[in-house]
Amino acid sequence: MSLYRPATLTTSLKGLIIPALACLTLASANAGLAQSPIPGGAPRPGRNANEESLAPGQDSASSNSNLPSSFNSESSGISHSGPQAKGSRYRQLPLTAADAKKKLDELRAGLAVSRPQDVQDGIYEMVEWLQDAADAHYRMATAFAKADAKREAASERQLTSRFGQLKREALLLKADLLIKQKRAPEALTPLVDIVIADPKGATGVAAYHRLQDLGFSQELPSDIANNPTIQAASASAATSVVKTGGK
Length: 247
Hints:
9 helices
């Protein structure tokens, strides 16, 4: 028997054992990663993985363009290879302020007589669309102002204001929807946003009254004086006091 055979056998065993240990270590590491993901690392349902890595307030890749997200062909369902789908909801979105006002009136009437879920999608789409439209006109107004195109800048500023007002009306409609769905706490944010943006306007006053009705804000003396229900209750109480002789 050769004296070198044991050494050769030992070397061969080492050559088998070391790779096997390495494979086991790698498998254990992969299993640990699979069982212990990074907190918050998994994408939320309905969100793209790329969107999860964005900073708060940063636009996703699908909406990162010179125009608002709703104006993008990808997000609007517009295909460059063929006509838009026949039943696409984006065909119903208004381009002009007059059409937007008409659409809001239709949704408001629908909310009054229909189930909330029947008009929910339309209301949410209008809120987003009008925000995008107002942003687009604002950016154009800014660009025209920098280019010293005064007439165009003035026109776009006017449209910015108009679409901003329509957006607040859509937010008020969204708040009414949430209240009707028994989700009043969620309605506070749009209502407060409206009041902050337009405290003395008709929409702002209406939003503040909603907050008062919910009990989030207090009734003011002037509101009590002009409220027929409260006046009737006060008159009834006063009559009762007179009849009982103040006892």
